Amino acid sequence: MALKSITQKLPHAEVAHPWPEQGQWTYEDYLRLPDDGRRYEIIAGVLYVANAPSYDHQYTVSTISRLLGNFVVENASGVVITAPFEVHLPGIAKPVQPDVLFIAAARQPQPGTQIFSGAPDLVVEVLSPGSLRLDQHIKFGAYEQAGAREYWIADPKTRSVTIYTLPEGGQEYALLGQFAADELLHSQVLVGLVVPVASLFLV
Length: 203
Description:
single chain, six-stranded mixed beta sheet, alpha+beta, 4 helices
């Protein structure tokens, strides 16, 4: 996203505190941004802005959250959270706000936590027309570098889910599978989870 297009979406900054150039954004700058319903994320000093998502997007987000959440509760394995919720990837991104994330029980945040610092165990991003590069490349690299053990990219347009996993001791994602609507997906992090892909998307 070009700097010009971003600054056009932002309120006028004070003369003494102008908005920074792309690549120079900090968390302190993030805290000055308006609470206007848009999602703001900073990765490697670059600000990314997303407008309110579509019905199709949110249907898939809520369905994945419900299915993962039910599985996690039944197995007492951790917690599932949806955006908006700040995740800080130290030295990489501050903040990102994944569509859906899973944190294992041993790392589960305490009540009252406002920010989770570190990589979630599993991250899900649901594609929107304007988020393809962000989710498939920028966030892919950020989650991989931070050590998120599993990354799902769900695509309502193609009704498919691509899952990447980080091998133990590895530094690069490996493709676990590309699951089409007529298939069942499974997870390496949530062992025993089986989900009909078609159930994640609107008919």
